[in-house]
Amino acid sequence: MVCCNDMNTAIVNYGRVLREYGRLLRARWRWIVWGVLLALVATTVFLILWPPMYRSDATVFVRTPGDVSRVRDGGDSYAQARARTYAVLASSRSMSERIIADMGLAMKPETLAGRIEARNRGGTALMDITVNAPSAGEAQQTATILLSEFAQTVRSLESVPGSLVPRAELVVVDPPRPAVRVAAWGTPISYVLLGAVLLGVFLGSTGAVIRSIFGPSTQDDPTDSDTPIEANALHVSEHGADDDQLPTCSVSATSELDSRSDSTTVN
Question: What is the pTM (predicted TM-score) of this model?
Fold first, then answer.
């Protein structure tokens, strides 16, 4: 029973703390709004100054149509091993040189190789290929030419003398998709903006809590803009009405009584 009572008390206290924080954030909602706005402005400036980059994705499958397919597992283990090897070959210097020659690009092979990424899905013979470029059209075109050169290279490496089919070949599962713009670390723009909003909410909430802890409270600072009605009421209750205001109130009340008496006499 004691343990249950302690747990219930903890839950009640936790709920009370949450309600207090909720009341605080509702009272200081401007801090959250300003935090979101500042985060969005900073993110927008970053996106404007950061060079634009677009990404096109594709997926290929390593097929084993040759003699390897007659082994016990149908060549699956061979295909998976080849997929891991070819994932490294996709971003090699030789592959980049052939792509540059086909497209007539004025760049170093190392630069293009750094924009190509191939990943083998663990336990499968699938490879996900990503190509980055300064424009959407160039990204998709580079990915298309990469798949063509990649397939020819694999077929050449897997050719067996005297056999009509290679031991392994690439089959395009998903062709290069339309490129999308990416920002930092290859993240889409929509995710970057969403992260900026969440960061702004966090910073604004943190600032509001810190302000309430270390800043002057409503009782110490009657001019707090978050609670103007309560602050003014507290100011009046603590300091009373100003001396200059009392005669004014009395004169206005006397004038009102005199006007009423005059109207009664006339009637």
Answer: 0.57
